[in-house]
Prior knowledge:
Structural class: alpha+beta
CATH superfamily of the largest domain: 4'-phosphopantetheinyl transferase domain
Strand order of the largest sheet: 5-9-8-7-6
Bound molecules: coenzyme A
Number of helices: 7
Number of strands: 9
Helix content: 25-40%
Largest sheet: 5 strands, antiparallel
Radius of gyration: 18 Å
Distance between the termini: 39 Å
Amino acid sequence: MGVQVAFRLNLVHGRCVGVRLPAEVDEKILSGLLPEERGFVASLAPARHPSWVAGRLALREAFRDLGIEPGPVLATRRGAPALPSGLAGSISHKRTLAVGLAGRPENGASIGVDLETCPPVFASLEEARAQARPDLRTLVLTQDELARLQSVPEKDHRRIVTLHFSLKEALYKAIDPLVGRHVGFHEASLTTLSDGSAQIALALSKNDGSFSAAGFWTEVEDHFLTTARVQRT
Ligand SMILES: CC(C)(COP(=O)(O)OP(=O)(O)OC[C@H]1O[C@@H](n2cnc3c(N)ncnc32)[C@H](O)[C@@H]1OP(=O)(O)O)[C@@H](O)C(=O)NCCC(=O)NCCS
């Protein structure tokens, strides 16, 4: 395939393959793409090549693990991976890793995946405060989520906020193809459980119809790996 596989996982919402991001994309790596995909890469800025290519290779590998050949995976008008009907897939990349989540969900369900670097586990509140960074909490968390955060030790707040951020990015990737619009962070409220599940209460601000949604999270190589599944009800 030209890139190194970092992990293969059967997750609640699909098969997930992680690959290491190459420093640069050479001919050997490009040979893992289909001709239409090679044409698409050529239209992108060079800085996007490693992540775009690694994401496509990870997603194709995840489909192949399921015995599915999805054909060329280009992009929808809104930026999602474009897949044949009946298949669902999603991509995320960070500095060193790219992941693809693949499935053939029933009832027209859509899936999303996200990767975020885990903040460090702080031993004490003092250490956490010394390493404080600009805080995303009011941008990302709803009033309900902020209230639930109060029951968590303050030294762990950054991790919890990052986990919510990641789950909402995964949710966004799953729901955007169904509603075709920008969905804001305050249009969903999450309850994360230690078993890796995340309950999702949607509060969509537009008349998009009714949906059920669920999230899942785990940790892989110092990253939160999160997924979401959304379906019309
Ligand atoms: C689109 C967005 C989710 C991408 O996330 P990101 O953390 O910046 O980047 P990631 O590496 O995780 O994901 C990038 C991949 O997302 C996918 N993607 C982009 N737009 C998408 C869309 N509209 N729908 C589904 N997937 C999309 C693409 O596959 C892209 O990779 P590629 O271009 O190489 O194929 C993010 O930029 C965004 O707009 N977020 C704001 C909205 C939001 O999260 N709301 C929360 C709702 S509860």
